[in-house]
Amino acid sequence: MSTNAIQPVLDYDEVLESFDPVMGLEVHVELSTHTKMFCGCPTDFGAEPNTQVCPVCLGLPGALPVVNAVGVESVIRIGLALNCQIASWCRFARKNYFYPDMPKNFQTSQYDEPIAFDGYLDVEIPSRTGDGVEVFRVEIERAHMEEDTGKSLHVGGSTGRIQGADYSLLDYNRAGIPLIEIVTKPVRGAGERMPEVAKAYVAAVRELMVALDVSDARMEQGSMRCDANVSLMPKGSAQLGTRTETKNVNSLRSVERAVRYEMMRQGAILADGGTVRQETRHWHEDTGVTTAGREKSDAEDYRYFPEPDLIPIATTTEQVEALRATLPEPPGLRRKRLQGEWGYSDREMGDVVSAGAVDLIDASVAAGATPAASRKWWTGEVARRANADGKELGDYALTPAFVAELDSLVRSGRLNDSMARQVMEGVLAQEGSPTEVADARGLELVQDDSALEAAVDAVLADNAAIADKVRGGKVQAAGALIGQVMKATKGQADAAQVRALILSRLGVEG
Amino acid sequence: MSALSREQVAHLAGLARIQMTDAELDKMAGELAVILDSVAQVGEVTAQDIPPMSHPLPLTNVTRPDVVRPLDERLTAQQALSGAPAQEDGRFEVPRILSED
Amino acid sequence: MTTDLTRLSAAQMAEQLASGAITSVELTQAHLDRIAAVDGAVHAYLHVDAEGALATAREVDELRARGEQLHPLAGVPIAIKDIMTTTGLPTTAGSRMLEGWIPPYDATVVARIKAARLPILGKTNMDEFAMGSSTEHSAYGPSHNPWDLDRIPGGSGGGSSSVLASFQAPLATGTDTGGSIRQPAAVTATVGTKPTYGGVSRYGLIALASSLDQGGPCGRTVLDTALLHELMAGHDPLDSTSIDQPVPPVVEAARSGDVAGLRIGIVKELTGDAYQPGVQANFDAAVAALTAAGAEVVEVSCPHFQYALAAYYLILPSEASSNLARFDAMRYGLRVPPADVALPSAEQVMASSREAGFGEEVKRRIIIGTYALSSGYYDAYYGQAQKVRTLIARDFEQAFTQADVLVSPTAPTTAFRLGEKLDDPMAMYLNDIATIPANLAGIPGMSVPSGLAAEDGLPTGLQVLAPAMADDRLYLVGAALERMLQEQWGGPLLDRVPEPTQLSKEG
């Protein structure tokens, strides 16, 4: 089979000249519950293999599942936040297929009775003009509960990949961790912006999960995963094209790239008169292409049936309303409110959002920092590093409390701007709190007025010609004097104060 | 009416992951025909408006609190692996897996 | 008083242990000696744990000597069906697939038995994964009916019924998916109860069909069975389908046996030509005895029972095909690589291991279940069977408005000969015709001895059925019948069972 050879792609604009893209996204979110979906095993990340298992999640003969109450509450809250209906009665179902990482050889999931259905999520994409945003509504088909699989390690062969491995090693610590699957209805009408919509949707779901405090939703750790179904419809046709399902898309950037790539790959096939194969494809972050996986034939038959070992879930209006009352402010509305409170421009707010700094700024302001300083610090050096390292702002030693502390040091006059930047570097290098870093590095503005006055007088005496110019009204010439004073005080003086002092000594209004 | 061809039985055996020889498939096809003819009787009942019964008792909402079970009610890696046909480094060793899920 | 301790009822053993007349070590050793003497002929046990049983017995004797408060059945030995997981003891469910597997956990029922300190003599034989009515589908060879070693002891719990009937244990556990406790009881003149679905925890009972399976007690007397029922039953948070309510007063009912004024319904569809004459005659006599004891008899009709067998043989294989998928040679159990492949894949090893590890009946049912659930057939088969199930439950509801309990013969015939129905799966399935409806509806049922058939001298049983959570009514009727019939017979039927060693073995 040559299906994994590099495939031709059609120019993106040409794709859009002939086709309308249709997309469906399936997002799997791992809940951050203390225990697994159907047993009391812990869910800690990174434990020794097969140490977080019991007869239930190991699928031992005779073991039986019991539903995690917080798992049910979480999916109802997710459903409500996605503007879904909540089923008044629903069951779990078994999805039967054999795979070594699945201990029972069926996945306990939901089939034709999802607990949440028919919702939508409004996502924001940058407007075409570059300032402000456009809102695109993504319809939600369903959100349902299921369980994760174990992890396999492929040993031998040359690549360490699944192909060519001699054998595999299985760890079932992850097996049974609660997963919520969120499925969109087919997304149409986004045209050339489809890849951006895909990324914005996944980002919005991620933001929602964090706001709901139900998952840490970290794509790079696998606690949030995305499968993208893409197909192309010839312009003017009402007939949906054959779709592919691209798996292994594990970053926001990949979501956008993978959708774009599939549009271009399928476009090339269709433009050439070929047919798209209905199959699973795998995204390769490094090469930026998808390769063919399992063919999704009609013969694939999961033999779903209601799970007899689990009791149906029935919800009352009161229960649902009680959970609705626990929902956080929707992230979009919250952003608008905060932008107003903080006085940011659209562009400033856009930078803050794309840096993932909203919550951190909110916390920093709450800790006493000014909105302006908070924005400056969170979208500055630390954001640059996070971007370069592929990490998140919260992964560094900087905290909202440190930002507030640093801002207070500046406002009290102890640090000037350049000193504050040095302190920030120290904080990021894990040297301690801003005060500790400033103390350790000996950073402090000269506060002793007599010492500063002496320095000013010395500079004025040494530069009488310039002083005369200033006296004569050329106030901008004072810059040279200020620079000399700053040099003499090794930068430990406040430039504004120096300027004021020079002007007052020379009898000039500032 | 309910007879299954050998190919159909082979397909079912594939879904059920049971290897079968041609002779076994033929024998199974013959036995299944008799059984399926008999169980097909359920189709004689008029039951359009009858709700299907998946659970014998009308219970709902049986859940457990999200609390970790103590270690002695779970399994150590050693216990988990105690019945394993093969193991390595605290993991279950299984033959090479053909295709990604 | 008899000197053979194994002939006592469990209740008598408990009394004599409590009074200090005997020790648990003596009692346990007597059973181990009995096993050594007769199980070669009966083949009721797959595994005997002399050491473990004696250790528990010694512990009970020591605790009792110290005056500790003990469970009433503490020290009374018991046999466990091999479908229940037991730490330290092999658990095979009668399958080659699990040969030598020692579970790392105890079934809830086993944990309760251990906590009450009943010495566990061993694990009893059964049809592979409880699929069968004869134990002939055990991968380890059939058990033999102590009444006639050439005949089947019933199934799937034929190991448990035959240990009781050959005095190799006074108590045994069972599981009943379509009659696996009641039919073996009927053909061996012992007692067995399938409790209300959810009455006994299924945690640690290797699943056949999750919505039908129910663990339950087996004994030689109605009281013994009630005592074990009480010990096994009760809410278990590890089983979502477990009923969170008090256990019905089964022991009290077994001690009372008062059926005066009780309305007993004869199910029209579960009598007649399909039943062997001696079975029907003993049933009629038993109903007459109950009438004499003050019960009122009515006839009820359950029109959808004629579809019960068909619905059952769709629902059971469907659930079983999924439940048995976990036996794939990856984490436990038999692993048999294909003979002719150099570096076989996991998929190939799964398929060849399942071929080697499962017997024919298991494969047959897995394939039927896979078919009944597959897309395009689901609605006609599994879906339709579940609707029929609803209709059968409604038939019961209707019948229980007219009667407090329902009765029928437990099985259509007495024990048939080993091998007689092995090549005819449908004939084998027909054995369960009277017991299946209770599993479909989730209601409790019991089989109690009704006599020996005139034509072959073999035991027959009467089945009592009650509404969900009215398990105590089974014991009222069972105890009344036991008392009335034993007066007629001049003692328990089992007094007449031949010594297994005196009979020639099959073949």
From TrEMBL, chain A:
Looking up PROSITE patterns in the UniProt record yields: GATB
Please state every residue range assigned to the domain named Asn/Gln amidotransferase: 359-506
Enzymatic class:
ligase
Alphabetical keyword list? ATP-binding, Ligase, Nucleotide-binding, Protein biosynthesis
Pfam families, per database record: GatB_N, GatB_Yqey
Q: Which InterPro entries does UniProt cross-reference here?
A: Asn/Gln-tRNA_amidoTrfase_suB/E, Asn/Gln-tRNA_Trfase_suB/E_cat, Asn/Gln_amidotransferase, Asn/Gln_tRNA_amidoTrase-B-like, GatB, GatB_Yqey_C_2, Gln-tRNA_amidoTrfase_suB_CS, Gln_synth/guanido_kin_cat_dom
- Catalytic activity, reaction form: L-aspartyl-tRNA(Asn) + L-glutamine + ATP + H2O = L-asparaginyl-tRNA(Asn) + L-glutamate + ADP + phosphate + 2 H(+); L-glutamyl-tRNA(Gln) + L-glutamine + ATP + H2O = L-glutaminyl-tRNA(Gln) + L-glutamate + ADP + phosphate + H(+)
Top-level taxon? Bacteria
Query: What are the EC numbers?
Result: 6.3.5.-
Q: Which residues form the signal peptide?
A: none
Q: Which PANTHER family match?
A: GLUTAMYL-TRNA GLN AMIDOTRANSFERASE SUBUNIT B MITOCHONDRIAL AND PROKARYOTIC PET112-RELATED, GLUTAMYL-TRNA(GLN) AMIDOTRANSFERASE SUBUNIT B, MITOCHONDRIAL
Protein task: Allows the formation of correctly charged Asn-tRNA(Asn) or Gln-tRNA(Gln) through the transamidation of misacylated Asp-tRNA(Asn) or Glu-tRNA(Gln) in organisms which lack either or both of asparaginyl-tRNA or glutaminyl-tRNA synthetases. The reaction takes place in the presence of glutamine and ATP through an activated phospho-Asp-tRNA(Asn) or phospho-Glu-tRNA(Gln).
In which family does this protein belong, per the annotation?
A: Belongs to the GatB/GatE family. GatB subfamily.
Q: Which NCBIfam families does the UniProt record give?
A: gatB, PRK05477.1-2, PRK05477.1-3, PRK05477.1-4
Q: Which HAMAP family match?
A: GatB (MF_00121)
Record's subunit section: Heterotrimer of A, B and C subunits.
Please give the name of this protein: Aspartyl/glutamyl-tRNA(Asn/Gln) amidotransferase subunit B
UniProtKB/TrEMBL annotation, chain B:
Question: What domain of life?
Answer: Bacteria
Reactions catalysed, semicolon-separated, are: L-aspartyl-tRNA(Asn) + L-glutamine + ATP + H2O = L-asparaginyl-tRNA(Asn) + L-glutamate + ADP + phosphate + 2 H(+); L-glutamyl-tRNA(Gln) + L-glutamine + ATP + H2O = L-glutaminyl-tRNA(Gln) + L-glutamate + ADP + phosphate + H(+)
Bias (Basic and acidic residues): 88-101
Q: Which portions of this protein are annotated as coiled-coil regions?
A: none
Spans annotated as Disordered: 78-101
| Keyword annotations | ATP-binding, Ligase, Nucleotide-binding, Protein biosynthesis
Concerning SUPFAM superfamilies, the annotation shows: Glu-tRNAGln amidotransferase C subunit
For this protein, what is the EC number?
A: 6.3.5.-
Primary enzyme class: ligase
Q: Which InterPro entries match?
A: Asp/Glu-ADT_sf_sub_c (IPR036113), GatC (IPR003837)
Protein's job: Allows the formation of correctly charged Asn-tRNA(Asn) or Gln-tRNA(Gln) through the transamidation of misacylated Asp-tRNA(Asn) or Glu-tRNA(Gln) in organisms which lack either or both of asparaginyl-tRNA or glutaminyl-tRNA synthetases. The reaction takes place in the presence of glutamine and ATP through an activated phospho-Asp-tRNA(Asn) or phospho-Glu-tRNA(Gln).
Family assignment? Belongs to the GatC family.
Q: What is this protein called?
A: Aspartyl/glutamyl-tRNA(Asn/Gln) amidotransferase subunit C
State the species of origin. Arsenicicoccus piscis
Print the organism lineage. Answer: Bacteria, Bacillati, Actinomycetota, Actinomycetes, Micrococcales
Q: Which gene encodes it?
A: gatC
